[in-house]
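[09:14] KT: can someone run the structure on this one? pasting the chain below
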Amino acid sequence: MRYVSLDQFFALLLLPVVLFLLGCLYLIVVPLQGRPFFFASERMKTRRQAFSLLKIRTMTPLERSAPVTALGGDQKNRVTPVGRFLRTYRLDELPQIFNVLRGDIRFIGPRPPLRRYVEDFPELYRKVLDRTPPGITGLATVTLHAREERLLARCRTADETDAVYRRRCIPVKARLDLIYRRRRGLGLNLIILWRTFSRLSFPKLPRAQARERTGDVRYALLRPLED
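[09:31] RB: done, structure tokens below
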């Protein structure tokens, strides 16, 4: 008999609500930006095992030959108006409940990285992924996401975005993911969930309030990201 994880059990409970929300979003999004409604991004669940991470499409499609990198200021014009709203409130990530049901990811864990970064940083991602399944949200996500977006938004070319992401984002995200691996438990998971829903409810808090929510210790970890 196939084992059903606790994450899959909760995903099944949430599925009717998510399907209803996806149906409503489909009726809004498709008339405004056309099809396809869904977007699949290749991500890595381990150093060797890839899967398709599902999202609602929020950008104009790339050519098939274009390299997939972190999203920076060079690509901001590709984000559609309705896509900008979806990304602000993370509604584009609702389809990832299907990834949880398939066992690709959990609700909480490191965000699954792109293949190119796993191949370029094999030892780093060995530490991050080998004993910690990826998730929809995690310590690095709730602590770093807004700061990472601001940092990458300053980039003007794909090469600059890639270089900044490699040099100034990946090491800090990995550090936080490793902290989560060492300290994960019910208490930390509840904090991450609270921070996630708080961020969705108040996505544009002033920096001082965001820093207060993050906490002095976590903010100090991210000081190298600032100019």
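[09:33] KT: thanks! Residues 206-227 have pLDDT under 50 and may be disordered.
[09:34] RB: yep, looked fine to me
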